[in-house]
Specification:
With 66 residues, this protein is α+β, with helices and mostly antiparallel strands. The protein has a domain of 46 residues. Helices cover 44% and strands 20% of the residues. It is built from two helices and two strands; from the N terminus they run αββα. It has a two-stranded antiparallel sheet with strand order 1-2.
């Protein structure tokens, strides 16, 4: 993907209405940040429930198979 393409506008539509509009590179960055946030939330909740944390994006302290 070229820098020029990353700078083009991307639109999020809901029922044909623009909900969010911005450069593609911002959408990609925001999406990755959003996923990371929810991954962090999930690991905290698992720990609070006394569950083992799985290897999500690499080994966790609970996963001894690595």
């Amino acid at each position: 993907m070229s820098d020029e393409h990353l700078g083009t506008t991307w639109k999020l539509l809901a029922r044909g209405q623009v909900v969010w509009e911005g450069p593609r590179h911002e959408i990609i960055q925001d999406t990755i940040s959003h996923w990371s946030h929810h991954r962090g939330q999930m690991t905290v909740y698992l720990r609070l429930m006394g569950e083992k944390v799985p290897a999500i994006f690499g080994p966790s302290a609970d996963d001894r198979s690595f």
